Amino acid sequence: MAKQTRRQPAGDSLRQPLRLIGGQWRGRKLQFPLCDGLRPTGDRIRETLFNWLGPYVPDAVGADLFAGSGALGLEALSRGARVMSFCERDPAAAKALAGNLALLGASGGRLQHMDALQWLNSSKIDAPLDLVFLDPPFAADLWQPSIDALAARPWLADGAAIYIESGVDSVFQVPDSWELHREKRAGSVCYRLYFYRAD
Predict the structure, then answer these.
(1) CA distances from 100 to 29, 54, 67, 94 (A)
(2) Regarding beta strands 178-186 and 189-196, do their DSSP bridges make them parallel or antiparallel, or are they unpaired?
(3) pTM for the complete prediction?
(4) Which overall architecture, per CATH, does domain 37-196 show?
(5) Where do the domains of the chain lie?
(6) Whole-angstrom Cα distance, residue 146 to residue 150?
(7) Which residues contact 5 (CB under 8 A, 6 or more apart)?
(8) One digit per residue, pLDDT tens: the chain, 199 residues?
(9) Helices (H), the chain
């Protein structure tokens, strides 16, 4: 009798792997769906970023805006962040992220199934935020509206770290109270880390 092969559920071929690279879940492999505009931050950039962040991550309250796979926020939780809110409006990506948070037992993860700008303009934020990841889909050009929304209300703690990932040709302006700490390029990607200093 010919051996039967188990049929894979539809959509399995459209799943991508994500590997956490540090902290308590180091080496854990997760899956996320292939969605339009979803572009996870690569391992090398994540490693550099979290080397920059160092002692600012443990016990931090943060937000992963435009979370997608949740790579940045999950990495922060793995490295000791206390609370991380994940904003993701795409239903498939949000469902996968919820599943991965449950799989890891990440009690500090808070999934916000909504647009990041909508969330920033709401009153449902665990503020003040110590750590913010801003990495929207490049084609959407949402850096400036997101920066403006972050700056318009008292969401940031004094000394908060703000990470921005963009294309090398992307144009945006940050408030004077955001001090550039580090900046680096990797191919067509530019990534920067700022620190907010209250007046």
Answers:
(1) 10, 24, 13, 10
(2) antiparallel
(3) 0.89
(4) 3-Layer(aba) Sandwich (3.40)
(5) 37-196
(6) 6
(7) none
(8) 333 333 333 344 457 888 999 999 999 998 887 766 566 778 899 999 999 999 999 999 999 999 988 999 999 999 999 999 999 999 989 999 999 999 999 999 999 999 999 999 887 787 799 999 999 988 889 999 999 999 999 999 999 999 999 999 999 999 999 999 999 999 999 999 999 998 7
(9) 43-53, 71-78, 91-104, 116-120, 143-152
Helix (H, G, I), strand (E, B) or coil at 126: coil
- Extract the tokens encoding 174: 């940050």
DSSP per-residue string spanning 43-77: HHHHHHHHHHHGGGSTT-EEEEET-TT-HHHHHHH
| Amino acid at position 49, single letter | L
Judge contact between 193 and 49, C-beta under 8 A: yes
Going by the DSSP 8-state scheme, the letter that residue 98 receives in this structure is H
Amino acid identity for residue 12 in this structure: D
Parallel/antiparallel/unpaired status of strands 83-87 and 15-19: unpaired
Provide the β-strand partners of residue 63. Answer: 85, 132
Rounded to an integer, what distance in angstroms lies between the CA atom of residue 114 and that of residue 112?
A: 6
